[in-house]
Every structure is written in C-alpha cells, then in structure tokens.
Amino acid sequence: MIILRRALSAEALKLRHTLGLWLIWLAPLVIIVLTVVQFSFQKTHGPMGLTPVKAWMNFCRGIFTIWCVLMLPLFVTLQAALLAGLEHGNQQWKHLLALPVPHWSHYAAKALMLALMVVASTLLLCVMTPLVGWILMYTKPDYGVAWPAPWGWLLMHSLECIAASSLLVGLHTWVAIRWNSFTTAIGVGVAGTVAGFLICQSEKLGPWFPWSMAAQTVSGNEQRAMLAIVVSLIGGALTGAIGLWDYARREYA
Amino acid sequence: MLAIETRALSRRFDGGHGVHQLELQVPVGSVYGFLGPNGAGKTTTIRLLLALLRADEGEVRIFSQSVAPDDRRALREVGSMVETPSLYPHLSARDNLEVTRRLLGAPKQHIDEALDIVDLRADADRRVRDYSLGMRQRLGIALALLDQPRLLVLDEPTNGLDPAGIADMRVLMQRMVGELGMTVFLCSHLLSEVEQIATHVGVLQQGTLLFQGTQQALRERYGDALIIRCLDANSVCASLAGLGETPQRLDDDKVGIRTPRLADAEINRWLIERGHTIHAFGRSPYSLETLFFELTQYGVAA
C-alpha cells in the first residue's frame, strides 16, 4: 500500500504545469458554458408549465447526457494519452523501470490517477450544474427552474456515471501505456466515442459497449443503467488486472 | 569484493546484438570502462544488469545479491543513467528529483545533496526544458545519485556534450569515486575519456567479452609499439609490408607496429631509403583506442 501511495504521489507531481491538470476543471466547464449558450439562444413562448422538480430534471439530464455520451469518453481518452505520454515522450520508462520499485506500481498509479481525474471532473460537473440553474432562474424564468437544486439526483448520477466509466478507464490506461503512439491512444478513443454515440440508444448493445456505458446511467432506464454499471465495474477490474500483468511481464529493450 | 558479477549471462535476440556467456567482474571502488563497437551488446548488458531485460541464461549479482526482473531489491544499491537522461522537461530539476524521491521513499535532504554534487543547486527551480544538454546530463547523474547508491551504471553519459561538458562529466565521475567511494560502470564510445578515468576495462564484441582487467594488465598483454609519424600512412604501410612487417594504420599520418621483426633502426633506414617523410619515430605505449582496435580488429588491419 505504501508503494502505491508513493507512486500515486509521484504521479500527482508529474501533472504539475500540464494540460491534464487544467482539463479536470475545463472539461466540465465547457459543458456548462455550452449549456448556458444553448439556453440563452433558445426562444421560449411564455412559461413552459413545468414543476421546478421536472424543470431541474430536464435540465440536469441534458447536461449529464452531453457529459456521459461525449465529453467523458473523450476526457478519459485524452487524459490517459497525456498520462502515458509523460513517460513515452522522453523515454521515461527506462528510468522508472530501472528503479528498485515494483513495476506494477507505475501502472497501477496511472490507472488510479486516471480514475481520480474522472471522479474529480464528474464531481465538479455535479457542483457546477446548479450554478447554471441559478443563472437560468434569472435569465430564462420561463423554464420554471427554482431552488432547491436536486442535489440527491446530481450526486447519485455522478456516482453512477463514475462507476460506469471503470471499464473505459481500464481500457484506455492499457492502450495508452501499451502503445507509444499518442495517435493510437487518441484514435481508439475517438473511434470508440463516435461508435458509442450511435450505440448508446440501443437497448441491447448500449450497456455492453465500453464507450456507451456511462450514457446508460442517464437513459432513464434503471435496469440498463445497473447492467452497464455492473459490467463496467467487472470489466474495469478485469482490464486493470490484464493490463497490470501485461505491463509487469514487458521488457524495455 | 565485486560490485557486479555476472555468471554465464546470455540473452539472444532475433536480430542479433545479444550477449553470450558473459562473465563480468567489476571490483568495488573501480571505474570500469565497458567498451565495444556498435552492436556489440553493451546496452543489452546494461539492461540485463538493471533487470530491464530477462536473461535467457545465467545470473546477475550486485554486491553479491542476485538481481532479476522479479527480484529488484539489490538495485537499491544502484543508480543508473541509460543513454540520454530521462527527465520531465515541464518540471523543474527539483521536481524531477522529487518525483524519483517519492517513488523511492528517500529522505528529502537527498535532493539538495544530489544537486550539490552535480552543481545544479542554483538552477534547481528552473524548468528542465530551459536547461542546456550538459545541465540535463548532470541532472541525470543527480537522479542516479538520489538514493545514495554504491554503484553507478552510466551508459554514454557524455553523449552530445561539448568538450567542456565532457571535461565536467569527467571531473564529476572522479569526484564520485574519490570522495563518495562509489563504483562506476561506464559505457562510452569516447575511448580517450575512458582511458583517463577507468581503472578497469572490459571489451565486448559480438556479445562476447574479449578482455577484462585493469588498464595496466591490458597494456602488459599487448606491450608497447613502434609508432611512426609520417606524411602518408598508406604508403608507409605498403613499404613496411614489403619488409615483412605487419603495420597498422592508426591515422592518416600515423603507423604502428606492435612487435616488429627487425630492429627499429633497420626499419627507419628502410623507410628513409624509399623516400618516405618521417616526422617522428619511436617506442610508445599503445593508447586505449589502439588497443581497442587491436582487440576488436575494428577499423584497422590486425
């Protein structure tokens, strides 16, 4: 445990002055800004007749859908590539692997750091969402949004979204570390995100496709959401174990 | 006692460049110059020593402790820099050291101590991307020294450095051995540099160790040579071959004969009579470079 804590602490320091650190709050902020812009330009013809709870739900679900379908898969893709790129870029592996530290700790620290980034960004989105609601109360009262914000819904869906991204984190950590090329890591992520965008509405495939699992948590179908979360957690543990095994047996030739 | 010992160490690759039955013996407190032409297996050896590669056969022992990819405890005694230093350019030198310190769990004061040794304390908070190549090399050494190892493994530490940088690196290595009592395993193409600082040398060719021992032993084995400085080494070599000697062209204007058949004076007269311009003529110990060529038959005729 001490070894992992040390590796994680080293990983955190490496992020200083990097885009990865900025992306943690920039990614949810982009979603928030886009939502504000979208609502600002939307025309309403008088009050929409929604209860505050319903109005909040519509609003929060809209934000979380963009996050889960588009931004989260791209965020994981980019962050995994950036984390691995720190070592690929300057042949850092040969230094890290020559240290008297178990090899698995480097891999585990990267995977954990990526998971922590997903947690931080999603929770930031959870906190930022009511702020936009607050802006809307004044700029677009017709939507019917009013205090209090649905904190319970936001927190629950944030946690579900985080859990449903486990497989994505496991997969992208492995791809980004296994192949030196930044293009490979990004290519896999972009292709997966585009496919996930098309697949996420499929009742059959949606809960099984890694890039559309998080989207299931905002589908409104609890069964699909639970299936996606369970598959993602099991898949995340499996890909993590396979990635660790693959990394530990590799040589630096 | 040996700092490094390998027993029948072998590693094969499909494309060559492996090592075969390597029996390295690096004494504690020595500066061991590990030499060999490109593709001889030097980097493979270093990677086997650092457990970056698995051996097909044999064993690596560091200070009598076995090292393998699955058992890396003995590497606690080893600091290394393989080829170019591995640095995070977006971080300061201090942060680069801190990353490794955190991984190793080493005390914090080791950072300043390592910076002092390589004389980078004043620039410690500058980002590494603004460093010169020489400063980066020194920082690479500081990283290797961070956990205060007893053995330093350096692969081409002077790569890309200008003459001043090379001289700095030499002084640094002399300090590490003299003041810190370390053992240095040094792999370098700069034979004149190795000659100045190495107490021991090992010469590797095609994965096989051709010679291992002190520089003194190497010289005793190959003795001195008759060195002729002339206007045109090629024509002098041709004339000497006609005399039944086996000359070596050491440079455009330099020829050596390791064990002349005839007396030196006879050889001199033979060359003068054939109209060669001779600038200098006399006995001289072979340089490490010449001995290296002699051993590996690389670049000149044996």
Please trace the helix and strand order of chain A, writing H or E for each element.
HHHHHHHHHH
Oligomer: heterodimer
Mean pLDDT of chain A: 89
Q: How many H/I helical runs of chain B?
A: 10
Please report the first level of CATH classification, the CATH class of the largest domain in chain B.
Alpha Beta
**Gyration radius of chain A, in Å:** 20 Å
Q: For the terminal residues of chain B, how far apart are their CA atoms?
A: 36 Å
Main pleated sheet of chain B:
6 strands, mixed
In terms of structural class, how would the helical and strand content of chain B be classed?
Answer: alpha/beta
**Strand arrangement across the biggest beta sheet of chain B:** 7-8-9-4-10-11
Q: How many structural units, i.e. domains of chain B?
A: 2
User: What portion of residues of chain B belong to β-strands?
Assistant: 25-35%
How far is it from the N-terminal to the C-terminal residue of chain A, by CA? 29 Å
Poorly predicted regions of chain A are none
Number of strands of chain B: 15
- Which descriptor suits the 3D outline of chain B? elongated
Average predicted local confidence, pLDDT of chain B: 86
Task: Let me know the CATH homologous superfamily of the largest domain in chain B.
Answer: P-loop containing nucleotide triphosphate hydrolases
Helix share, percent of chain A: over 70%
